[in-house]
Amino acid sequence: MKTDNSPALSRRERNLAEIRDRATPIAEAIILAEGVEGLSARRLATELQVSVGSLYNAFGDLHQVIRTVIAGSAELLANALMTAVAQAAPDRRSRVVALGEAYFDFAMAEPRRWSLMFEYRAQLEIDDKARDFQGGLLDMLIAAGEADPQSEQHRQFFLVLWASVHGVVSLATRPTIIAIQPELAKNYITDLVDSALNRFPVD
Hints:
Elements: H1 11-34, H2 41-48, H3 52-59, H4 62-87, H5 92-109, H6 111-119, H7 128-144, H8 152-172, H9 182-197
């Protein structure tokens, strides 16, 4: 017996929800094994044993399937970063370094998730979910650095620091672009943080 006031789903809505629930882990497995280029609507529909039309009715288009996988990857990254901050020493330098190193470690351990989160359709305007996710990461960094989240100067300061660390991480995960040793790149994160915090703006 229903115990809340939410309306009962129709049979069609239940079927579409089931397709979404089943499709996401299958799409994720394909992307992590082969990259996003390995995923197609026809392949995913075949795996699910549904029509391509039913798949599109559930998601809208294939890009929304990929966005759902991205959302799950973003949650994993956010959890890794929160854990790193919680386990770091209580001073701001240690917390910011811990964030940078956890960011690096996640990218090295999950390069396809990393690429999916930050490079998928990067030439297009960022969508609302991606904007909210990136804003949340920036807020986490600002809090770790004991800065004022209402100060645009502080926000820009940590945004530049994030961009610097992101650049190092991106190069370390792309050895075909330039030969950079991951262990050296990770050590450099501490230098970036120290250099930045020495220039932290004082209002």
